[in-house]
Every structure is written in structure tokens, then in C-alpha cells.
From TrEMBL:
Entry keywords, A to Z: Acyltransferase, Fatty acid biosynthesis, Fatty acid metabolism, Lipid biosynthesis, Lipid metabolism, Transferase
InterPro entries: 3-oxoacyl-ACP_synth-2, Beta-ketoacyl_synthase, Ketoacyl_synth_AS, Ketoacyl_synth_C, Ketoacyl_synth_N, PKS_Beta-ketoAc_synthase_dom, Thiolase-like
Domain (Ketosynthase family 3 (KS3)): residue spans on this chain: 3-414
Protein name: 3-oxoacyl-[acyl-carrier-protein] synthase 2
Catalytic-site annotation from UniProt: C165
GO process terms (BP): fatty acid biosynthetic process
GO MF annotations, alphabetized: 3-oxoacyl-[acyl-carrier-protein] synthase activity
Family: Belongs to the thiolase-like superfamily. Beta-ketoacyl-ACP synthases family.
Pathway assignment: Lipid metabolism; fatty acid biosynthesis
Source organism: Dyadobacter jejuensis
EC number: 2.3.1.179
Highest taxon listed in the record's lineage: Bacteria
Length: 417
């Protein structure tokens, strides 16, 4: 059978360095850090006292108070990003068959803040079972896709993918495949996370996964630097409108890029640690490039998972070198988590948006906070340290890897008619 082409016609973003796509992208290119002391709660007793929080946001500027109260922050973020993406896509009246339009979202954790608040309230009230009637619908991860579907009247496939930090990328892959197969014409996809809570920070501290560079939060996320000491927790999300090409063309849509590749793999190794030889990373890169039907030498930019952890960073680069061989040093590689922190299940969405904008503007955002070379990392690799680089970007690849050994990657291409 012949597959339909899938293009990107709208985007929305709510991130630690910008509450819309334009601001987010401007600050990525400028190398702005979103890390700062935590304001969501008193973090004084925690080993990590900083995070990459969404800033300057009044939820009620976007969602009426009564509606917002029924949503966990991760769902609020999904709504805000999706509204921007839908507006950006410019759908006119009658241009969407609502029965063939869906919402496929990603979140690794879902309503953590809601769960934490309700349990603390239960304990504070002498175990009296006075739970909020919206506790369950606010907490469950699929509430984000459901609320967005209701908001826009989309009656096609609607669900959420959960694969830890690969969640949003898996959502994009599912949306891509549903459209390629003709089961949808339009899909709001992406992901969101709101894990900057006591339980979120405390849990990752217990895993020794977070940076503890409390004296300099803005330089704490330093992928590929010799002195990296863990990731910085982020929050927010992004929405991407995927649309069947002929459908988009027929309505005269603005098209950002074409999605041409989807790859997945599993490490089958450890619940939190990456495969020591980067096997899962190698396989997912191989799978996504083969899925796109291109030669490895056509990849211009890779937005890496690049969390700033001692184990994860070199394994991913090892996989890139093994797969791309002599072409690896010719690829621009960067980790935008150096600026946004790690949005967990929402990471793949904001990083896919960065890849799409790199194609649009022909510029690669940097990996900031590089101070000391890591002798275990090949110095010939172009890791786009500290400053954005202009270059031709026809194909951009985004990697995401999640706890449990879940790996998902996508490729975007500059549109050819």
C-alpha cells in the first residue's frame, strides 16, 4: 500500500524559556538558560533547590478559573500549547472533518501535583476521606488528550502515550502513523509535564539523577561537559499539528516541514540506566533513518536526548558515532536541555519543535554551559557548544530515551512539493 505524506502545519509551546513558540525559539538560539531557584514550593530542605519552571504565566489568561480548577497543571499546559498550535495552523470553518481529527498526547507522569496535594490533604485531615471530586480525572494522564479533544471537538482517535521521557515522541509517532494510514487527516500531538513538585524533585533526588549545583543553577545543565552532575528538572510542553499533505495543500496551509521517519527500540537492560554500549540508542537511530528511506549522510542536525548525566551522554554519542561513521563529525549535534532542562514526558515535543524551527530558519541552537572538555567524548564531534550555528538543515533528527529502556526518534525534512 502507499502511505500518505504527513506535514507540520501548526505549533504551540509553553516552556521554561518562553511561553509561545516564537519566544521559545528566540531564546534557544540566543542560548538562554531557564534554570533558577524553585518557586513552586519551599525547596530549602531538598538537595536540589532549583529547576526550569514555566515563568510569568497566569493560567486564567488562557483558561477560565472554573475550568482550570478541574485540571492538573500538566493538562493546563497541554491546553495552552494546543490552543496556540490550532491558531497557528489557521483552520478555517469547515476545513476539518472532526471525525477524522484526533489528539494523541504524551506524558510520563501525568497529574503528579494533584496526587501529591490530595494525599497531603488526606493526611492533614486525620485520614478523613474528603477527596476532591475531580481528583481522579485531574490525575489520570489521559485527561490531557481528553480535555484537548473536547475543547476542539475532535472525534477521531484520542489517547495518551506513556513511555517515560520518550512519551511525547511516541505520541508523535502514533499520530504520524495514523495519518499515513489514512485513519486521520489532522492530529494535535505533543506532550506536557508538570513534575516540579515536592514528590518530583524528592524522587529524582533519591535516584541521584538531578544536578545539585545550587550555587549556579543557570549553568547546572551542562551536557557533554566533564563536570556534569545530573539533569535539571523542567516543566511545560508543546503541541504540534500533524496533517495529511494533500489535506493541508487543499486548504492553502502554511507548512513548516514534513515528518518522514519514526523509529523505536528498547534497551532491554535496566530500569533507569542506559545500555552501557548504547545498543538501544544505536538501534533507534538505525530504525528511524531506515524508516525515512534516506542515507545516513543526509542527516544535518541531531537534537540529542543529552540530559547532562554522567552515564547517558557518552552512550548516546557512542551510538551516533557507531551508526554514522565518517559522517558523524559533519552533523551538528546539540542538547537543548542545556537551556530548557528536562521536561520528562514533554521533552520530545519541545525538542521536535526545535528541530522543525531549525529547518525553518536554517540555524542550529547551541548546547550551552560547556566549560571543560570530557576526555571520553570525541573532540571531532560538532556539539554546537555555547553558540548557535548557521547551516543548511534539510533533515533533522530528534532522540528521546526513557526510563525502562524506551527509545523513540523522529526525523523531519524540509518540505519538497
Amino acid at each position: 500500500m502507499s502511505f500518505k505524506r504527513v506535514v507540520i502545519t501548526g505549533m504551540g509551546a509553553l516552556t521554561p524559556i518562553g511561553n509561545d513558540v516564537s519566544t521559545y525559539w528566540k531564546n534557544l538560539v540566543a542560548g538562554v538558560s531557564g534554570a533558577a531557584p524553585i518557586t513552586r514550593f519551599d525547596a530549602e530542605k531538598f538537595r536540589t533547590k532549583f529547576a526550569c519552571e514555566v515563568k510569568g504565566l497566569d493560567i486564567n489568561d488562557y483558561i477560565p478559573r472554573q475550568e482550570a480548577r478541574k485540571m492538573d497543571p500538566f493538562t493546563q499546559y497541554a491546553v495552552i500549547a494546543s490552543d496556540e498550535a490550532m491558531k497557528d495552523a489557521g483552520f478555517g470553518e469547515g476545513t476539518i472533518d472532526l471525525d477524522k481529527a484526533g489528539v494523541i498526547w504524551g506524558s510520563g507522569i501525568g497529574g503528579l501535583k494533584t496526587f501529591e496535594d490530595e494525599v497531603l490533604n488526606f493526611a492533614a485531615n486525620n485520614m478523613s476521606p474528603r477527596f476532591n471530586p475531580f481528583f481522579i480525572p485531574k490525575m489520570i494522564a489521559d485527561s490531557a488528550s481528553g480535555v484537548v479533544s473536547i475543547r476542539h471537538g475532535f472525534r477521531g482517535p484520542t489517547f495518551i502515550t506513556v513511555s517515560a521521557c520518550a512519551s511525547a515522541t511516541n505520541a508523535l509517532i502514533d499520530a504520524y502513523n495514523y495519518i499515513r494510514l489514512g485513519m486521520m487527516n489532522v492530529c494535535i500531538s505533543g506532550g506536557s509535564e508538570a513534575a516540579v513538585t515536592c514528590a518530583g524533585v524528592g524522587g529524582f533526588n533519591a535516584l541521584k539523577a538531578l544536578s545539585e549545583r545550587n550555587d549556579s543553577p543557570e549553568t547546572a545543565s551542562r551536557p557533554y561537559d566533564k563536570d556534569r552532575d545530573g539533569f535539571v528538572l523542567g516543566e511545560g510542553g508543546a503541541a504540534i499539528i500533524l496533517e495529511e499533505y494533500e489535506h493541508a495543500k487543499a486548504r492553502g496551509a502554511k507548512i513548516y516541514a514534513e515528518m518522514v521517519g519514526a523509529g523505536m527500540s528498547s534497551d532491554a537492560y535496566h530500569i533507569t540506566a542506559p545500555h552501557p554500549e548504547g545498543l538501544g540508542a544505536y538501534n533507534v537511530i538505525k530504525n528511524v533513518v531506515e524508516s525515512a528511506g534516506i542515507n545516513p549522510e543526509q542527516i544535518d542536525y541531531i537534537n540529542t536526548h543529552g540530559t547532562s548525566t554522567p552515564l547517558g551522554d557518552p552512550q548516546e554519542l557512542k551510538a551516533i558515532e557507531q551508526y554514522f561513521g565518517a559522517h558523524a563529525p559533519k552533523i551538528n549535534i546539540s542538547s537543548t536541555k542545556s537551556m530548557t532542562g528536562h521536561l520528562l514526558g514533554g521533552a520530545g515535543a519541545i525538542e521536535a519543535a526545535a528541530c522543525i524551527m531549525a529547518i525553518q530558519d536554517q540555524i542550529v541552537p547551541p548546547t550551552i554551559n560547556h566549560f571543560t572538555a570530557d576526555p571520553s567524548i570525541n573532540p571531532e564531534l560538532n556539539l554546537t557548544f555555547n553558540k548557535a550555528q548557521k547551516r543548511q538543515v534539510n533533515y533533522a533528527l530528534s532522540n528521546t530515551f526513557g526510563f525502562g529502556g524506551h527509545n523513540a526518534s523522529v526525523i523531519f525534512k524540509k518540505l519538497e512539493s
